[in-house]
Amino acid sequence: MYLARPLIGTEELVRVKTVFDSGFLTEGRVAGLLERKVAKYVATRFGIASTSCTTAIHSTLLALKVSGGEVVVPDFTYPATIDAIVLAGGKPVLVDVDLESRNVTGEVIEEAIGPETRCILPVSLFGNPLEMAAYKAAGSKDIPIVEDAACSLGARIGSKSVGCLADATCFSFHPRKIITMGEGGMITTDREDIARACRSFKAFGSDGKRFLQVGTNLKLPDILAAIGLEQMKRLERIIRIRAQKARIYEELLGEARHVRTPIQRKGTRHTFQTYTVYFERPRIRDRVIRALARRNIESRIASYAIHQQPAFKRLRRAGDLANSRLLYERALALPLHHRVTDEDQQLVCKIVTRIGKS
């Protein structure tokens, strides 16, 4: 049983063939269509395609000129978030997350803001949208917010989509994300200055006529964008499937001792890009991983406590990062995708419950 599987079909192949037949394979008209489609979906003025969410974040931080300044970022995330800050010349300030939501809170952000803060970079992890307070935390200080929403295309707070709530939002199209093109990323923003700078940077620093800055090549090929256009048509269906299977997990694990299932706050839509459970007792998680593996069932640790990774041990920390450490040691991602059957979920939960009791 796979941990993740993309929902793709013949429609993507047909759309890709049209790109092949056109003879134009690099970034062009089709990528532009995808940019506009994603921007319209999240209700922003601009969409800027990139090669990945990591390069999207990197480009956006360069546009905001964070070099030499501090960027407040959650400690519990994938290292790519931190890589983008360092590559842009920023200084990450690691903050803790909430144990239930796995996301950083507005209160923690406010406490971490200092005189050198240039940007806030929250992560809406696993498809769970941030609390509104996280967006408002820096508002009074006029500090920009760039959201790492790699997992959260389709997530909502009320009627607003993740993607229009921060100064800029960055999405991923990696195969483990809600929709995929194999690789790729997207920036959404209402700020023309960010859009202009990111478009220039990804095209060698050009504005189409002149080279205005040092840039690089982060263009998204039309071949991949063609897949993305068909995937966007599937987005709502994919989210419905994942939500339905998440409810089954919730029912099956609802009374399991020492196991916490993901929360979904009232008035929000969680995409369940990853379904994570948290074991309240130590050393259970790794036993569950081994027990699942014996039945040929994939699972993964949920994410990383950045401060415990060798590459990042010297980064500044705000607080003791206790929740991040606990989630790194005890949280587990379970299989969730369209091919997972009810029987598969029952087997997974039987193993989780049995190990959790022991």
Structure in words:
- By secondary structure, the chain is of the alpha/beta class.
- It folds into two domains: 10-231, Type I PLP-dependent aspartate aminotransferase-like (Major domain) (Aspartate Aminotransferase, domain 2, 3-Layer(aba) Sandwich), CATH 3.40.640; 235-357, Aspartate Aminotransferase, domain 1 (Alpha-Beta Complex), CATH 3.90.1150.
- It contains eleven helices and 17 strands.
- It has a four-stranded mixed β-sheet with strand order 1-10-9-6, sandwiched between helices. A four-stranded parallel β-sheet has the order 5-2-4-16.
- The longest helix is centred in the middle third of the chain and has 32 residues, at 222-253.
- The two termini are 24 Å apart.
Structural class: alpha/beta
Give the low-confidence spans. Answer: none
Write down the overall geometry. Answer: globular
Strand % is 15-25%
Our count of domains comes out at 2
The CATH architecture classification of the largest domain is 3-Layer(aba) Sandwich
What's the CATH class label of the largest domain? Answer: Alpha Beta
Main beta sheet: 4 strands, mixed
State the CATH superfamily name of the largest domain: Type I PLP-dependent aspartate aminotransferase-like (Major domain)
Q: Compute the separation of the termini in Å.
A: 24 Å
Please give the count of helices. Answer: 11
Rg from C-alpha positions? 20 Å
Topology:
Elements lengths: L9 H13 L6 H14 L3 E5 L2 H11 L6 E5 L1 E2 L1 H9 L3 E5 L10 H7 L4 E4 L11 H5 L9 E3 L7 E2 L2 E2 L6 E5 L12 E5 L2 H11 L19 H32 L5 E2 L7 E2 L5 E5 L4 H11 L5 E2 L2 E2 L10 E3 L3 H9 E4 L7 H16 L1
Parallel strand pairs: 2-4, 2-5, 4-16, 6-9
Antiparallel strand pairs: 1-10, 3-15, 7-8, 7-12, 9-10, 11-13, 13-17, 14-17
Helix pairs in contact: 1-8, 2-8, 3-4, 3-7, 8-11, 9-11
